[in-house]
Amino acid sequence: MKKVGNHNSISRKLFFSLALSLAFSLTSFAQDAAPAAATEVPVATQGGDPIKGKELFNSNCAACHKLDGKATGPALRGIADRRDKQWLYKWIHNSADLIKSGDADAIKVFEENNKVAMTAFPQLSEGDIDNIIAYTSEVKAEAPAPLPGAAAGTTSQEGGLSNNLILGALALVMLMLVVMLFLVSNVLAKVAKANGIEVAPNAPRQSIWKAFVRNQFLVLVASVFLLLASGYFVYGYLMQVGVDQDYAPIQPIHFSHKIHAGDNEINCKYCHSAARVSKNAGIPSLNVCMNCHKNIAEVAEATATPEYSKAFYDEQIQKLYTAVGWDKAAQTYTGKTEPVKWVRIHNLPDFVYFNHSQHVTVAGLECQTCHGPVETYEVQKQFAPLTMGWCIDCHRKTDVKMEGNEYYAKIHAELSKKYGVEKLTAAQMGGLECGKCHY
Amino acid sequence: MKRVYKITLLFGITILVASCHNKKAPNYQYFPNMYESVGYETYSESAAFKNGKEGQLPVDGTINRGFETYDYENSTAGYELAKANLKSPLDSLDRSSDKGKALYDIYCISCHGATGDGKGKLVEREKFLGVPSYKDRVITEGSIFHVETYGLNAMGSHANQLSKHERWLVADYVLKLKSQL
Lengths: 439, 181
Known about the structure:
heterodimer; A: mainly alpha; Cytochrome Bc1 Complex, Chain D, domain 2; B: mainly alpha; 2 domains; 9 helices; 0% strand; Cyt_c-like_dom_sf (chain A); electron transport (chain A)
C-alpha cells in the first residue's frame, strides 16, 4: 500500500526530466539552426545585392513571376545561367521592342507564354536589374525542418500524458481508500467479536420511503415540484425543435473563415458580394476564390496549426483547383468543372421573408451582428438561433439610421412625434407587423 | 447494490441523451413541410435540370435586365484602346459621393492598400506580391475600368462582384488616390 501515490518515485522523476530535456534540446537545436540558414552566403551573387533585389522583385516582378514554378510568366530562379545579361537588360526595359527587332530568343519566350506581353520597366536601372538577378540567383533555401513545431507537439503531448497520469493515480488512491475503509470496518467487527462485545443489531426502523408516502403534505409539495420541473424541461425541449443554433456541418472543402477574414482581414463582402445588393448573401462562386488562389497554390508554413497541417490546407486548395478545372502546371483552365456541394447552414423557413441587402446596405448592419465573430471560426457555424423572438428582439432594440436620408425625413418626423421619441427603432417603423416578413 | 445499479442506469441514460446532440447534423423540425420550400431554393439541387442544379447559367447570347455590355476585348490591344478612348459616364454627384471609397475598401484594399500604395494586408503578409503603387503606373479611368472588368496578370476580374456603375465609381476613386500619392 505504501507504493500507492508515490509522487517521488525515481522512475517518474527520470521520465519527467527526460521529457523536459528532450523538449528543450529540440527547441534550442531549432534556434541554432535558423540563424545558420540565414547567414549562409548566397552563391553567385554576381555583384548585385540580393536583399535589395528581393524588395525590387516583390514589388515589380512577383505579380507575374515566381522564383520556382510558372505563373503568368516563367520561373526566374537561376535566370542568369540561362540568359545573357545584356539581353536581360534589353528585355526588361522594353520586351516589345526586342520582339519586334526579330530576336529569336525573345520571340520564343513570347510564344511560350501565351503571347502575353511583359510590362516594360524603363524605370529599373541596370544596377537594379543586377540586384534582382542576384536575388534570383540565390540557391533555394532548404525548407527548415519543422523542428519547432515537432518540439511543441512533444511538449504538449507530455503535458497531456502527465495530466492523465496524475488523474489515474488519484483514481487509484480513491479506490484504495474505499477498500481500506471496508477492510477497517471488517477488522473492527472482528476485534469487537474477539473482545466479546456484542454489536447491537439495528433496531427495525420505518424505511424513509414509507414515511414519505405517509406524509401527505410532503407528497403534495414533491409532486407539484416534480410537475413544474418536468414542465420546464419539456418546454425547453420543445422550444429548441427546429432551431439550428451552433449547427456546424462538415463542408466538402474545409474553408477557414479564420484564415481569410481573420488573419488576412479580407472584407466579408469581398466574397459574399451579393449581400450588398440582393436578398441572398450568396455562396461565392469559385471564380472569386480564383481571384487570389490562382496565385496562392499552397499555404505558408506559418498558417498550419497543430490541428490542421500545411498538407491538409494544401489539399483543400487542390480540391478548389479540381472543382474549378485549373491546371496548376500549365496555368490554364481545363474546362472540366464540377460543382462543390456546400452544405447550407443558415436556412430560414419558407414562410418567412428575409432580405440581406435591406439589412446590410440600407440599415448598415455589421455582418457580425447576426453571424457572430465569423473571423474567428475555423469551422463555420450558425451563431444566432434565427428564431422569430430573436428577430423581434433586435427590431425592438435597434435604432434606425435616419440621418442623411432626406427622402424619408417627413415620415420620420411624424413617427417620432407619434411615439414621442428622438430615435426610432425598427419596431416603431413597422418592423413588428406580421405582413412585413410573413406573406 | 440495487441502488448503485439504478444510479448507473440514470447516469448512462443522461450520457446517452447528451451524446445524441450532434452539432454536425441539423436539428429536428416540427412539420417540416412548413419549413421546406415547394419552389426551388437558392443553390439547391433539382432534378428539373439536366445538370441537377437550381443555379443555371444564362442561355448563351442573353443578358439579364439592366446589364450593360462592355465592348473592348480582353487583350493587350483592347487595354490600349480602352486606356486611350474609354471615358467615365459618371456625373459630378457620383464623383463627389463616398460610394467609390466604400467599394474600394471592400474589394481593393486587401492588395492595393488603403492609400493605393500597393501595401495592402495581403502584400504585408507576403501572400500576394508585386502589387504596384498607383503612382508608378500610367493609368487612365478607361484603363482602370478595363482592368477591373477583365483583370490583369495576377489580378482577377471583379466584374461579377461589381456592377458596371460600381466599377466606374471605383475607377474614379482610384484616380483620386493616385492624385494624392
